[in-house]
Design a protein that fits this description.
299 residues, alpha/beta, seven-stranded mixed sheet, two-stranded antiparallel sheet
């Protein structure tokens, strides 16, 4: 029997209480007061010491030579964007308010939808949830979105919320069973969306070099692509302004099976990391990674 967390866990930084507060503000605040609500919520997260230090350490790698004081204020921009993306996701789920969208790499996006099965690989950037919901409502393909599990069950339920028709949300807590399920979904001609920038829990990983430093990326998307014989499409959803987003699709990653499986994975990971670095370098304020990303920084 799974032990339920103590009641006060909902007030932790990752607890559901603060998301519920933001949801209440979004649904009950006049539009002209929204920036004040976002600013107040972002200040709370700036006081969240563990996340602030994690973001600052990551920024020191992304922007080498930057001063700690400058990165402290950059943290606020990260939390500000984080608040707005949660707000836009709530507005879409609760009120069906659709943001304005623009696209880059549209030909790759169309190609992905026309294929018999594909993997959409993205990062903890912009609004992953909102992009998946909108994609499911405009595509004839069924989409399964795989997310890292929230430690708090109430937070997990809040994040899952009311999914759009054609969208299913899975948490990668049962890796073996889930992998078989996802393989079947892809072979049925549908799309699986996975975050591929960081490793959480006990999931398998592959070595990678990001911004010149060794780290790890999830192995699942690459193993799944190899097993299903489908390409991986790097897709990023970035915020441009108030209820304005850009969906960016890059050249697909083709895993060609050879006698050297490790080399197959290495080449695919290098292509993925190249796309990831490019987007993070330009949109560092929307990379919502609140723990030290590189193992050496966590020491």
């Amino acid at each position: 029997m799974t032990q339920q967390p103590a009641w006060w866990h909902r007030f932790h930084a990752r607890g559901v209480f603060w998301r519920q507060v933001l949801r209440f503000a979004i649904l009950n605040t006049p539009p002209w007061l929204e920036p004040i609500a976002m600013a107040s919520w972002s200040l709370f997260f700036l006081m969240w010491g563990t996340a602030r230090r994690g973001v600052m350490r990551n920024l020191a790698v992304i922007k080498p030579g930057s001063f700690a004081l400058v990165n402290f204020f950059r943290c606020y921009r990260v939390f500000w964007n984080y608040a707005w993306t949660i707000a836009d996701n709530v507005r879409f789920k609760e009120l069906r308010t659709i943001p304005d969208w623009e696209f880059t790499g549209w030909k790759y996006f169309e190609e992905m939808q026309e294929r018999d099965g594909a993997i959409l690989l993205t990062a903890h950037m912009g609004s992953y949830d909102l992009g998946a919901h909108l994609f499911s409502e405009t595509s004839s393909r069924r989409i399964v979105m795989v997310r890292a599990p929230e430690t708090d069950p109430e937070t997990r339920a809040f994040e899952q919320g009311r999914a759009a028709e054609g969208l299913r949300i899975e948490f990668n807590t049962r890796s073996t069973d889930l992998a078989i399920d996802l393989l079947s979904i892809i072979r049925d001609g549908n799309i699986v969306a996975i975050q591929g920038d960081r490793v959480t829990g006990e999931i398998g990983f592959l070595p990678a070099t990001v911004f010149g430093r060794p780290t790890r990326v999830p192995a699942g998307p690459f193993a799944l692509a190899l097993a299903a014989r489908v390409p991986i499409y790097p897709v990023f959803v970035v915020r441009l302004g108030r209820r304005r987003y850009r969906l960016m699709t890059a050249r697909p990653i083709e895993l060609v099976r050879s006698q050297d499986r490790d080399d197959d994975f290495r080449r695919a990971v290098e292509q993925w990391v190249g796309e990831l670095e490019h987007v993070i370098r330009d949109r560092w304020s929307q990379w919502f990674t609140f723990e030290p990303y590189w193992p050496e920084l966590a020491a």
